[in-house]
Structures are given as structure tokens and as C-alpha cells.
Design a protein that fits this description.
Distance between the termini of chain B: 45 Å
Number of helices of chain A: 16
Strand content of chain B: 35-45%
Oligomer: heterodimer
Radius of gyration of chain B: 17 Å
Strand content of chain A: 5-15%
Shape of chain B: globular
Distance between the termini of chain A: 29 Å
Shape of chain A: globular
Order of helices and strands of chain B: EEEEHEEHEEEEEEE
Largest sheet of chain A: 7 strands, antiparallel
Number of helices of chain B: 2
Chain lengths: 415, 220
């Protein structure tokens, strides 16, 4: 039970390409040109075979982060070969109990094997080692044209993002009477590549927003699976979403998918009250999450195994806590929630500092102390309100805004 | 506080989009820019993230935004998304647009990665007898278009990168930008941009065909 948001009841280079010329006209699809080429996963796989894994790893380390994608898929790994042979045999995919890069290897191997079997029109015998794959750039296709559009605007992305996109590329019958799969699938695809566009609009669901943002960033496949589960089965992590909510239209001003998922996470997280997807203040006892709720929701929805809240009730508590979270915020699989005053977040000079909002820290906080507070500086980027929100103020303003930090991690030894 | 959408309709679609309304929860009493896609001055400006606050007088006006309409169509929307009969005042649109451009300029002046800004600026530029589409902010990176606003370039990749100076409202900005040479020089072009669809009754999808014109005699 809480107030509007955070509860105050329980606790206060791409590859060089030749210049392309495109035509301009006033008709639909105003610009047209040939598709570009780039070093995608297929290209890097070819490089691996030519110059070896170690050399490619050095190359990848020196290039853009996006090339990390290709390093995730290792065609020589046993998981890739197992997936490849399952696909070649036209058998159902059985990736369990794999996770992380091993899962990505299996899924990519399975995709390739399955495609080859379908192209041949028959199942194929297993092999010890798949034949080198012909580099295939820009040939990723989806049956849903809107997914294709989103992929084309974001390619190459990561192997995990691609796998998540493929899981959305089908028809799903849902139990939400006012929503359609076509709308939800398109929004989910956009969020697989841009999780920071998840927006709570007028709903008091900042806590669920942070959990979903972390899930979409850390594990896009699990995010896509949650989208499907909530829509198809009316459950979130196996727990039922109330039927009144499932028969309600989205709140005005919100994306339909954000509304459905944030409402579902809020409803499942609530101990007593159903949540009905209403605007902040309409059912005040039904909305909002305290830090304890958020720790539970991180574990239930986002694969977190360990979560801890550092309360900062006194002035002297804030900067040490900020420095502690700075040490882990860049660690993969770690989420940092900042429990703040929304008024000070919007306006650092605000005198009002009621604890009523939670945001997710994305990068280390810059802290420059000075005996003269007007010359001190705090800057950070956090996810909230459908964006990367940049905050800049003095140390005293930062302390005035902060109430607590929550650290959540998928690995119990991350902090 | 009510939400207001303004757009210019043309056969086959819309050519401008401005959406303003209440701040996101739990903020109260202030008004924010929700979405923007307009051509103004040299640059077309597209913005996705909620930005605010808008000036207090706009928040007050959004309590009762009905008034004489201009050439833009409009919809006044209740918090539940349902439409209020009548048109929003054109004078309010002009005021909102000016304030919106200031908020976008403020956003672009912050230390935010281009692809995370949620903002896209576009212009046509003539230089040396050739025509270019400039796109800002943009860095040379894989998946450079990976952002919350989809820009339809027909699959073309921007391949020339460098800084540009942008005057937006009362603010002048130095931004990283990309350029794309167009094959058929002409006085103008249309670029389609797609903003996220928010649930509202009886308003068009925010898929906007921005009409860009080349200012004659402008140096490259």
C-alpha cells in the first residue's frame, strides 16, 4: 500500500561504406536506396574462421560495443552445436537449463539448423561441427512487417535482442479484451532496443517501471516472454492478474504495452488490493511500491537473487551510499534504484522534498564536493518517465532529494 | 489539467504534431511537453520523451484550453483519454510551441548520448550544387538509428559525420550530426517520422510527414 508512487507509508563504426545517394520525392517512402552492408554477426563469424577467435576478440575489443554481439555467439561452442543439431532434426528447441551467452549460442544454433531443415524440406542427421556459415547480412526477416521495420531501424543489435524479436514474431491470443497483439508486439519490439522509452504516464507505477526497464535491458528475451505471458495467460511470473484490469482500456496518454505490463506488475506485487490501471490518486491504496515491494518484484520478475536497501535518513548517510552504488552500478546484472523526491528531481531548487518517486540509476554519479556548496556538483543519468533523465545540482540539493538506494543483482556475489 | 493534441492534416497523413498535457506522475500541477514533430525555421524538430515543465501560464491555460482555432486541427483530451468537444485555441498552440522548442533545446544541451536523447533534428542543406539531409544529434556507430523516434530513410545509412550549429528557439547549440547526400536536388523533400503511439481517442497516429525546404543561397 502506498501513495502515488514510491510508498511513504511503510517507509518514508559501422564498416566503411561508399557514400550512398538516395532519391528525394514527395511520395510515400520518400527516400529509397539499396540496403547497406555492415559487419554483423555473420561477418564476424567469417573473420573468426579466417583469423581466429583470439584475433577477433582483440578486434572486437577495439571496435564499437555493438560488435560485442557477434562475440556472444560462438559456433564452436557445444551449446551452439547442440542447438544446431536440434534444429536440423526438426525437433523442438530444448535450451534448458542454459542462460546468458550459452543460451544465446543454443538459440542461434537452433535457428540456423531449423532454417536449413525447413529449406531442405526434411530433417537432417546431426553433425559434429556445423559447416562455416555464409556471412548473411541484412537477410534477417520477420513475418510481421512492423517488427521488420523496428529491426531494420535498430540492426544489428545483440543476439539476445534478435532472439527476443523472433519470439514476438507470431500471433498470440490474449485475455485482455481491450488490447491487440499487433499493437503490443510493435511496442515490445521497440522496447527491446530502447528500454528507456517505457513510460508510466499518469499512473503511480514508478516502481514497476524500474523493474521492467531493468528486465528489458538485462534480459530482453525474458522481457518478451513476460509480455507474452501477461497478455496470453493473464499472469505475471505465474501469479494471476485480476480480471477487472484485464477488461479495462489503457489509461489515456500511455503506450498500451507499458500500461498493461506496469499495471500487471503492480497488481501481482500488491499484497491486498487489486490494481486496475487507473491514474495516480484514483485508487491511492492500490498503487505505489515501497522499497520492500521493489526488492520482491525484482526477484519475482527480473531474475534477481539478492537485493538490499540502503536507507539514508541523515545528511551524512547520502554520499557514502552514493559512492557505494557507484562501485556496482556498471556491473552486469546489477540494478540500482534511487528513492527520491520527484519535486527535487524536476527542479533541484525545490524546497519540498517528499519521498514519492523511484528511478533507476544508469551510470555512476559524478560527485564534486566543495566547502562552498554553490561550487559543488552532482550529476547523474537515470531512467524515469520514458527517458534517460539527466539531473544536475549541488551536493546539498542531491542530499535533499535522496531518501534511499536499493541494490538488486542477478548474481548473489555481485555486491 | 487537460491534454491537447494539435496537428496539421494533409491528404494521406499529417505534417505536424504537438502534444502537451499534465506532467508524469507523481508530479502534480505542472504541464509538460509530451511529443513534438514540426518544421520550424531551418530544422524540423522531433521529440519523444516527456519534457518539462512548461511555463505556469500554460499549465493554467490547460485547465480550459478551448478557444478560436487556427489552421491546425486539435483534440482536447480528459485524463482517461476521452475527447472533450470543441477545438483548442490556436494562440495557446503558438505559446506551447515556443516553450516546447526551448525545452528541446535544453534537452539537447544536456550531457546525454545522442541515441538516448529521444530528439531528432532534420534539415535540407544545399552545398556546392548538391543537396544534403542533415541529421542531429548523431554519432557514427552501429545501429546509429537505434532510438525511440523512427525515421524512414528507406534503409540508407548516414556516412558523413561532423559538428553543426543549430539555432533552436533562443538557444544556439553545437551538435554532432550526420549528412546524407540526396540524388535528386530539388527545393524540398518529405521525411516520415514515427513517434510512439499513446492511447487517446479520436486522434491520428503520430506518423508525421515532415516537409523540408532548402533555404536558397544558404552556405553549406
Amino acid at each position: 500500500v502506498g501513495d502515488a508512487h514510491e510508498s511513504s507509508v511503510a517507509e518514508t563504426a559501422p564498416a566503411a561504406e561508399a557514400a550512398q545517394r538516395v532519391r528525394a520525392d514527395a511520395g510515400p517512402g520518400a527516400f529509397g536506396t539499396s540496403l547497406p552492408t555492415s559487419i554483423g554477426p555473420g561477418g564476424v563469424l567469417a573473420l573468426q574462421r579466417t583469423i581466429g577467435n583470439a584475433a577477433v576478440s582483440r578486434l572486437v575489443a577495439a571496435r564499437t560495443p555493438a560488435l560485442m554481439v557477434a562475440r556472444l555467439v560462438d559456433p564452436d561452442s557445444p551449446e551452439y552445436v547442440r542447438g544446431y543439431n536440434d534444429g536440423r532434426a526438426n525437433q523442438p528447441a530444448v535450451p534448458a537449463p542454459l542462460s546468458g551467452d550459452a543460451l544465446a549460442n543454443y538459440e542461434e544454433g537452433y535457428r540456423r539448423g531449423k532454417a536449413e531443415a525447413e529449406a531442405a524440406g526434411t530433417s537432417n542427421a546431426p553433425v559434429e561441427k556445423p559447416a562455416p556459415e555464409t556471412p548473411a547480412v541484412d537477410v534477417v526477416t520477420f513475418t510481421n512487417p512492423e517488427l521488420q521495420q523496428v529491426f531494420d531501424a535498430n540492426k544489428p543489435g545483440t543476439a539476445k535482442q534478435l532472439a527476443a524479436m523472433r519470439s514476438l514474431d507470431r500471433d498470440v491470443k490474449g485475455v485482455w479484451s481491450k488490447l491487440t497483439w499487433a499493437t503490443l508486439a510493435k511496442s515490445a519490439a521497440q522496447r527491446i532496443y530502447n528500454p528507456n522509452m517505457m513510460a508510466q504516464g499518469g499512473m503511480g507505477t514508478c516502481g514497476p517501471a524500474t523493474i521492467l526497464n531493468f528486465l528489458g535491458t538485462n534480459d530482453p528475451g525474458a522481457y518478451a516472454s513476460l509480455v507474452i505471458e501477461v497478455y496470453r495467460d493473464g499472469t505475471g511470473g505465474g501469479k494471476s492478474v485480476n480480471s477487472k484490469l484485464r477488461d479495462t482500456a489503457p489509461l489515456g496518454g500511455m503506450d498500451s504495452l507499458d500500461w498493461m505490463l506496469m499495471s500487471a506488475v503492480q497488481d501481482v506485487t500488491n499484497d491486498w488490493y487489486d490494481f486496475h490501471g487507473t491514474a495516480q490518486g484514483v485508487e491511492p491504496k492500490h498503487e505505489g511500491t515501497g522499497s520492500g515491494d521493489q526488492r520482491w518484484a525484482y526477484k519475482h520478475f527480473a531474475g534477481v537473487s539478492k537485493a538490499e536497501t540502503i536507507d539514508t535518513p541523515e545528511y551524512k548517510d547520502v554520499l557514502p551510499a552514493a559512492r557505494r552504488v557507484n562501485g556496482v552500478v556498471s556491473t552486469k546484472g546489477v540494478a540500482i534504484n534511487m528513492h527520491v523526491s520527484a519535486a527535487v528531481l524536476q527542479n533541484p531548487t525545490s524546497a519540498t522534498n517528499t519521498r514519492n518517486h523511484v528511478i533507476r540509476l544508469l551510470r555512476p554519479i559524478t560527485i564534486v564536493e566543495n566547502a562552498d556548496d554553490t561550487k559543488s556538483l552532482v550529476e547523474f543519468d537515470a531512467f524515469t518517465w520514458g527517458q534517460v533523465f539527466h539531473w544536475k545540482g549541488t551536493v546539498n540539493q542531491f542530499i535533499h532529494m535522496m531518501w534511499a538506494f536499493t541494490i538488486a543483482a542477478t548474481s548473489s556475489d555481485a555486491f | 489539467m487537460l491534454t491537447v493534441a494539435w496537428w496539421h492534416a494533409r491528404p494521406g497523413g499529417i505534417t505536424s504534431w504537438l502534444l502537451v498535457g499534465p506532467a508524469p506522475a507523481p508530479l502534480t500541477d505542472s504541464a509538460w511537453l509530451h511529443q513534438l514533430a514540426v518544421t520550424t525555421g531551418d530544422w524540423a524538430v522531433v521529440s519523444q520523451p516527456p519534457l518539462g515543465p512548461l511555463p505556469e501560464r500554460i499549465a493554467e491555460a490547460l485547465e480550459d484550453p478551448l478557444g478560436p482555432a487556427g489552421d491546425a486541427q486539435s483534440a482536447v483530451l480528459r485524463p482517461d483519454g476521452e475527447r472533450v468537444p470543441g477545438e483548442a485555441a490556436d494562440a495557446l498552440r503558438a505559446e506551447c510551441l515556443d516553450a516546447a522548442l526551448e525545452l528541446v533545446a535544453k534537452r539537447l544541451s544536456q550531457r546525454i548520448e545522442p541515441r538516448e536523447s529521444g530528439v531528432v533534428l532534420l534539415r535540407l542543406r544545399s552545398a556546392g550544387g548538391r543537396l544534403y539531409l542533415d541529421f542531429a544529434p548523431a554519432l557514427e556507430e552501429e545501429g546509429w538509428q537505434s532510438r525511440s523516434v523512427l525515421v524512414d530513410l528507406g534503409g540508407a545509412r548516414l556516412d558523413s559525420f561532423g559538428p553543426v550549429t543549430v539555432a533552436l528557439g533562443s538557444t544556439t547549440l553545437e551538435l554532432p550530426a550526420a549528412s546524407l547526400e540526396l540524388a535528386a536536388p530539388g527545393p524540398g523533400a518529405a521525411i516520415e517520422v514515427t513517434l510512439p503511439t499513446l492511447w487517446h481517442a479520436e486522434v491520428p497516429e503520430p506518423v508525421v510527414r515532415l516537409q523540408l525546404e532548402v533555404a536558397r543561397g544558404r552556405p553549406g
